[in-house]
Amino acid sequence: MADTAPEPAPVILGDEPGSFPHGVLADRHPAVVRQVRDTFPFGPERLRALDALLASCADGVVEPLPAEADARDRERWARWGLDAYAGRSWYEVPWLWAESHFYRRLLDAVGYFAPGTWQGVDPFRPAKLAELDDPATDEELAALDGLAGLTADERGRALLHGSLWGNRADLGFRLSEGGTGQQVDALVCDDGDALWSLLDTPGPRTLCLVADNAGRELVPDLLLLSHLLAEGRVDRAVLHLKPHPYYVSDATPADLLDALRRLTAAGGTAGTYGRLLWTALREGRVTVRAHPFSCAPLPYADMPGDLRAEFAAATVTVLKGDLNYRRLVGDRWWDPTTPFADVTAYFPGPVAALRTLKSDVITGLTGTTVAALEKGGDERWRTGGTHALIQVRT
Ligand SMILES: O=P(O)(O)OC[C@H]1O[C@](O)(CO)[C@@H](O)[C@@H]1O
């Protein structure tokens, strides 16, 4: 690790037409608004608000929060930069900030925070439930029974990869059974051994698991967690979820309950793991957090003291997914060979990232890996979700 933090690279903005971040603001956000518009029979007031947001996505500016916003929320957003960015184009402010704030505005538009019919109604829940109900989920859960013949370590590694590739909404249990080649080759960095070593240190061991998506990502996350508890690799766990709907499919406490019920209702190994986790929650060995900062438009380097203290107390904090990675290393145009340990030196304890690559940010690669990726013919290796990484700073 370098003695000093690396010179920060430029922050990623969405202002360059044709770039991936620009496409997210200009195309994906409007598509999300249209999808939400069709999800429920919203009345004229909500439809007007959704249409205004749709228009704003094209050429609007960041606006102050509505007058009826909760005072604490208002104070938080002021601290998170809203006062500085209000009046500026979505395309000129940091991309991470613009995306995150877009979801806050979407919840305003559907009336999520306002007293009334739509208060607390997750506009993304039907899509999340559909994923859990998909017959493919049954198949993937049934495939878990095939892990019975493996040693506990092999099972642990298979479940770790299931959780990793679940970030692509793709449970990877069959990885363990001969079909591993393609996806393991697609790992651009694999510090898996360092993660297992951390879970071998003298106990008691606490895992902080900062989850990402609900549905078919959260299910394998829970299976991994349950396995680690069952094998005594961790004694306690804190599961960090989002306090409200975010980035379409991010997991909230309600999504956790849906996933848990899905697991406990399943037969075989999946059901056993589900019931184990249910008991661990009842006994307080697993606790759930939905910290406001989990939906903040800022990097983890800016985390508040209480969150910092929680992560500091963990044996290891595992962050799932692309967005958490961006927030962990900083949403910047890093040189891909910038050491992961350097950009995460500020983090208050050992930290691991499990991520499929779905945006431009990348650190911690070797020069050889970068050269191979650049030459490999897959121009979208940074953003297409075809590659993944396990990076650890001990
Ligand atoms: O669910 P994940 O892995 O955090 O990915 C979400 C990603 O999708 C995007 O919203 C758009 O690609 C990225 O900004 C973000 O990093």
Automatic annotation (TrEMBL):
This protein's record includes keyword Repeat: no
Residue intervals of the Damage-control phosphatase ARMT1-like metal-binding domain: 25-368
SUPFAM superfamilies xrefs: AF1104-like
Cofactor: Mn(2+)
Hydrolase is among the record's keywords: yes
Domain of life assignment: Bacteria
A Pfam family: ARMT1-like_dom
Reactions the enzyme catalyzes: beta-D-fructose 6-phosphate = dihydroxyacetone + D-glyceraldehyde 3-phosphate; beta-D-fructose 1-phosphate + H2O = D-fructose + phosphate
Keyword line: Hydrolase, Manganese, Metal-binding
Family label: Belongs to the damage-control phosphatase family. Sugar phosphate phosphatase III subfamily.
UniProt protein name: Damage-control phosphatase ARMT1 family protein
Taxonomic lineage from the root: Bacteria, Bacillati, Actinomycetota, Actinomycetes, Kitasatosporales
